[in-house]
Amino acid sequence: MSTIDVSVGGRAGLARDIAEGVRLHLPLHLIAAVTWIAGLLLAWRFSIPADFFQIIAALRVLATLLVLFMLVAALATVVKCAVKTRPESLACEVAAMLRRRFLSPRVTINLVNVIVAMALFHHGYLQIKRAIPFLNPFAWDKAFAVLDRIVHFGYQPFELLASVLPMPFATFIIANVYISWFMVMLGCWVAFGALLTNDALRVRFILAFMLTWLLGSGVLGTVFSSVGPCFYERFLGDPGPYQPLMNSLAAANVQWHISAFAIQEVLWQSYVTGGGKVGGISAMPSMHVASAVLFALAGMRVDRRLGWLLWAYAFVIFLGSVHLAWHYAIDGYAGAGLALLFWVIAGYIVSWSGARRPISVLVK
Predict the structure, then answer these.
(1) CB within 10 Å: which end of the chain, N or C, has fewer?
(2) Could you tell me what percent of the chain has a pLDDT over 90?
């Protein structure tokens, strides 16, 4: 049974609840541990600074985001009470909602397990990503540029997009949607990974996310190591087919601040110096696209309207990955395919682990 009976009082009942929570999230903890240990070993092997403060930073960011979720939920409750229910005590209504949706033992156990697992996984993954050029120096960019042209009938994908996306305002809009991906990802971690009442979907989402990033980016990203169009000339000494794209982005940046330009420079400096806030270059597969597809897959199970909105978001992220020179189009195709594959695999693992049923104390 995978039921947490939070009605049992006392320390013994709480201990059983915690133990059951750990068991439900065991696949996540195992993958997080493997990723973290592998990342630390690679950091030690290649003298990569393993900044352990990143773990604290990740915990702080997730905790802050949770507080923001609580504030939004409280505001929504206030509006609902003012418009519809009009309770005798607004404060009591808001407090009851917060206890039910965020502060119950069941939700607290979920939050602790997911946040700890994701913080360790994130730290380990960053070390693995930084180790990619040591394990397998970037060597696939020329092949991917050729493959992109073959797949798209003799055209580079950015050439096809340039014919339908007017410059530079469209670039500005797409760049801002693209940069929102990080906050959307954090929100989905909390909303889909910790606050859902359906254990199977909740664990499946985080498990698919971990598998996609570890095996997709960590393993396949090492095997097919590449830097992407934005760094093509810096690594190969030749702009190849991407000079028109980079010129167009530079022209757009003169009129509108294109955030990708600044971020690409920060990423490059972090790579050159081996430090900085952002680290690791890896184009194949696109984790932006892969993650956005996972958001949509989970969203469709929560609410179809939300799901379709997230599918539209994933499509814009794919367009941005090409149009902003971050990725080859085939990086996005590979990322989407891997997300679908690991979503299916995660479903089987969750079913096998016994988390098919929602736990008994549901958030009403």
Answers:
(1) C
(2) 24
DSSP reduced 3-state for 281:
coil
DSSP characters for 229-272? Answer: GGGHHHHHSS-GGGHHHHHHHHHHHHHS--HHHHHHHHHHHHHH
Task: Give the single-character DSSP code of 327.
Answer: -
pLDDT (tens digit per residue) in 307-354: 999 999 999 999 999 989 889 999 999 999 999 999 999 998 888 766
Q: How far apart are CA 173 and CA 256, in angstroms?
A: 10
17-48 pLDDT, tens digit per residue, is 777 777 788 888 899 999 999 989 988 888 87
Cα 25 from Cα 158, distance rounded (Å): 42
Query: What Cα–Cα distance (Å) separates residue 4 from each residue in 21, 196, 353?
Result: 7, 15, 15
Q: Which of 200, 55, 197 is nearest to 126 (CA)?
A: 55
Q: In terms of residues, how long is the chain? A: 364
| Cα–Cα distance for residue pair 272/274, rounded to 1 Å | 6
SS3 content of the chain, % helix, strand, coil (to 5): 75, 0, 25
> Looking at residue 5, what is its pLDDT?
46
